[in-house]
Specification:
259 residues; mainly beta; 5-stranded antiparallel beta sheet
Length: 259
């Protein structure tokens, strides 16, 4: 762990969190370095885009690229031609120019009473003209391009680790290992749930999920504690597929953390 900008072979990071690919670059939330880093996939050079490297607890409306602090960026997403990053120390969501790193506040996020880091944002996914932000208290919020927040299905009994758009609704991975799907204004349905002898049984289970994403209509789940990436083709599936099979013995110590 450390901080050093050079190329992909020598650069250092410190507890990187989320990452997203756009415009030929891989953008990384370098959490403990309090920076957003960018890897050019052609030149293989690593640069710092946002954050001076110092932690901050002060809420601000703008951040001057690499010259002002950004506190604990945990995840990021791309929507349209803008990059979005969440700060865990200030509970804020920023809109960032991917070219020069200039950031402006999109919205303040709900804080609640979750200890030192308040109700920190842990996960963000981009949808159709909206963003989905999941907080440390397990609640997920939809944020439009103007920064307006609305809780996804207010009063939901589930506590999420990540939520994203899927098919004609939204899907979430819960802390207790379920994959649940919400279509239009209906109720959450547990994917793969069957009734056996009058009792609900769920075949679609993960352990320690940390992120989800959709590509080409399929849902991918990072099943961290099982060292797998799992895949679902539809909300009606009864079983998952293993997109990424268990690693060899030499890689057992590796923990998949993020898509």
């Amino acid at each position: 762990p450390g901080y050093f900008d050079q190329n992909i072979f020598t650069s250092q990071f410190n507890r990187p969190g989320g990452m997203v690919h756009a415009n030929g670059k891989l953008f990384i939330a370098d959490t403990y370095n309090h920076r957003v880093r960018a890897i050019d996939m052609v030149t293989e050079e690593v640069t710092s885009l946002l954050g001076s490297g110092f932690i901050t607890w002060k809420k601000v409306k703008t951040i001057d690229a690499r010259f002002e602090p950004l506190g604990l960026p945990t995840d990021l997403a791309v929507l349209g031609n803008m990059l979005y990053v969440v700060s865990a120390t200030t509970n804020q969501l920023y809109e960032v120019d991917m070219k020069d790193g200039a950031a402006r506040l999109l919205c303040d996020l709900p804080e609640g009473n979750a200890g030192l880091l308040r109700n920190a944002p842990l996960n963000i996914n981009a949808g159709t003209n909206v963003l989905y932000v999941t907080m440390a208290d397990g609640k997920s919020w939809k944020v439009d391009r103007k920064g307006k927040l609305s809780e996804i299905k207010k009063g939901s009994p589930y506590r999420f680790v990540a939520v994203c758009e899927w098919k004609n609704g939204v899907v979430g991975a819960t802390r207790d290992g379920k994959i649940v799907y919400l279509e239009n204004d209906g109720d959450w349905k547990t994917v793969g749930e069957q009734v056996v002898d009058g009792k609900p049984k769920n075949d679609v289970r993960v352990q320690g999920a940390t992120d989800i994403m959709v590509k080409d209509g399929d849902l991918y789940i990072v099943d961290t504690d099982n060292h797998l990436v799992r895949m679902l083709g539809s909300a009606g599936d009864k079983l998952m597929k293993n997109y990424w099979f268990r690693p060899s013995q030499e890689l057992v110590g590796f923990d998949a953390a993020h898509t």
